[in-house]
Amino acid sequence: MSEQTLAQPRERDNTEFLLLLLKARTFIALILVFTFFAFAAPNFLSTANMVIMSKHVALNAFLAIGMTFVIVSGGIDLSVGSTVGLCGMVAGWLILHGVDFGLGWSIQFNTLEICLLVVLVGILIGAINGFLITKLNVAPFIATLGTLYVARGAAMLSSDGRTFPNLNGNPEYGSETFRWIGAGNVLGIPVSIWMLIVLGLVAAYIATRTPLGRYIYAVGGNERAASLSGVPVTKVKFFVYMFSGLCAALVGIIIASQLVAAHPATGETFELNAIAAAVLGGTSMSGGRGRIAGTIVGAFVIGVLSDGLVMMGVSAFWQTVIKGLVIIAAVVVDQAQQRVQSAVALRAQANASK
């Protein structure tokens, strides 16, 4: 047997091992980051810090799940951070003022009704994005950039830029339980984590077990081919942006509940963390590829990195630099994975033709 023949299996094994490492990069990154801060940051492993960090991770993961669907479909949603701020202000307004029709007639809402109305606001913003992109043919970047400014401006106008404080609710109207969403626990686990588990399972089921999920990947992979194959491209795009708006609304509710206050500037730059988590989790910015589980792990990487740097006393300016470098590294590694996969596929085709 020639040396060339022996070298081929070794080369194949090395390539497959490299591909395996690239696919598992997010888990490896999480283990490395967690281990580093466990030794470098004081009290990083304390129970109190784990609880706080899990809440931070949940907020980013909510947005990242919605962002994953959008990016997989070939789009982008820059409006989620502003949607978070506007939805928080809507929740604060409904708790403090209800809906006033004048002449002494107003409607007050309980916690469930407030949450439903806020979620509808988030879905409406997503529908507006979908309409601009599908019906008016506005590029997703420009359409969602526009709604980013509109939503942020609306949040500022709702209170003239001031905070809605003391969102404790009113027992008379059944809104006093609003605080429980952000501060409550079930079986010792924060409510926001339970909400994330439910949302993650629902999103993963949609992505992997339903025709809608296959349509989302098809549209992102090749929109023209998907349209010719009978995929309802317009409906799919409406869904992903509305789902992203729903996720942003949930984050707005949770933050307002945790702080017992709503501020119009809430959510600034949240969209960047959501995109970073999705990309770290293996979602391709060119569309057609991504997994919900990977996105959630990516959100953990971002959350652990952010909290760990804070606990080490790293400057906020350096934190921004480090996050930027992480995003760039994630994109570079993703491109490397695609090249390795292409090489493996070409080699398999060559072997099959022999």
Report what the structure shows:
One of its GO terms (molecular function) is transmembrane transporter activity. This is Ribose ABC transporter, permease protein. It is found in: Cell membrane. The chain has a domain at 49-271 and 285-290. The protein is 74% helix and 2% strand. It contains 14 helices and 4 strands. The strands form 2 sheets. The protein has a two-stranded antiparallel sheet. Strands 3-4 form a two-stranded antiparallel ribbon. A hairpin with a 5-residue loop joins strand 1 (99-100) and strand 2. Helix 4 (80-96) runs parallel beside helix 6 (140-159).
Largest sheet: 2 strands, antiparallel
* Helix segment tally: 14
Uncertain segments are none
Please compute the radius of gyration using only Cα atoms.
23 Å
- N-to-C SSE string, H for helix and E for strand: HHHHEEHHHEEHHHHHHH
The proportion of residues forming helix, as a percent range, comes to over 70%
SSE arrangement:
Layout: H1 3-23, H2 25-40, H3 47-72, H4 80-96, E1 99-100, E2 106-107, H5 111-134, H6 140-159, H7 178-183, E3 185-186, E4 189-190, H8 191-209, H9 211-221, H10 223-228, H11 233-259, H12 270-280, H13 292-311, H14 316-353
Antiparallel strand pairs: 1-2, 3-4
